[in-house]
Design brief:
By secondary structure, the chain is mainly α. Helix content is 76%, strand content 0%.
Length: 274
């Protein structure tokens, strides 16, 4: 992987991680469009550590407050009624599905799931489901009204993002809208929920790369560069997305997903990309 590839893919990872358009899908599509090698699932997971660092920095006060409340709730049952403690438990609960499915389907995720036909189809299908969520969701509930069943439902939606093209934020925001959450609350819980799964996944894949098991085509310097750029662009994407959703719908992302997915399927079918 050249330095130019690392720069481009790091920025792409950061910008697309928090928009409902699939960062893993884009890290497969962009190289295909310009004739580069597929960077692989390991590279994707490690650069996601950069975007997770952006989440940790952006939501540092929220995460510290939630962590303290959650730890307090381990000792004091009464503390479990506090909003921050409950959100902490819902994050734990919502992380279980992706942990289970990630282990069960690890090999498929790293190989067959990166097929461009699958990615193009997933972009279109999830885009249309997101549009449906926009149409039927009441958007009457705030983050303060979230319940355990919501955390689990959004957690199962997050597990769908193991398939490139689905989008972690896209699936979880869509689930939040179906559950009646308003757009900023759905996005906020989506970003908070992503922290444990992506950090653990990224650290595991980082170990594989450093030990030489995977990612031999990526130098340490380029990996660090891509991760740093993912952090910077990811932080900007979080701030923009939360502001955008206070007064706009997600329809623009639906249009983008369907258009890109259609283009991918046409180009793959014609043999222009592979």
């Amino acid at each position: 992987m050249s330095t130019l590839e690392a720069i481009v893919l790091g920025i792409v990872q950061g910008l697309t991680e928090f928009l409902p358009i699939s960062s893993t899908g884009h890290l497969r599509i962009v190289p295909a469009f310009v004739g580069w090698e597929d960077p692989g699932a390991a590279f994707t997971a490690v650069t996601q550590l950069g975007t997770m660092a952006a989440v940790l920095l952006y939501f540092r006060h929220d995460l510290l407050r939630i962590s303290r409340a959650w730890l307090r709730s381990l000792r004091d049952r009464q503390a479990r009624r506090e909003l921050d403690a409950r959100i902490g438990w819902y994050i734990v609960l919502g992380t279980i599905p992706i942990g289970i499915f990630g282990v069960l389907f690890k090999d498929q995720i790293e190989t067959g799931a990166r097929d461009l036909y699958l990615i193009g189809t997933a972009l279109i299908v999830l885009g249309l489901v997101l549009l449906l969520a926009e149409r039927v969701g009441t958007r009457e509930r705030s983050l303060e009204q979230i319940q355990a069943k919501d955390g689990l439902a959004v957690g199962f939606a997050q597990a769908l993002a193991l398939v490139p093209g689905v989008s972690r934020s896209g699936a979880t925001i869509t689930a939040g809208l179906f559950l009646g959450l308003d757009r900023p609350s759905a996005a906020r819980f989506s970003f908070l929920l992503s922290v444990p799964a992506v950090v653990l996944s990224g650290l595991l894949e980082l170990g594989s790369i450093l030990t030489g098991e995977e990612g031999q085509h990526v130098s340490t310097g380029n990996l660090v560069l891509a991760t740093l750029l993912a952090f910077v662009s990811g932080y900007a994407a979080i701030a923009w997305m939360l502001r955008y959703l206070t007064s706009h719908s997600t329809v623009v992302f639906v249009v983008y997903r369907v258009a890109l997915g259609t283009l991918v399927l046409v180009l793959v079918s014609s043999g222009a990309i592979r």
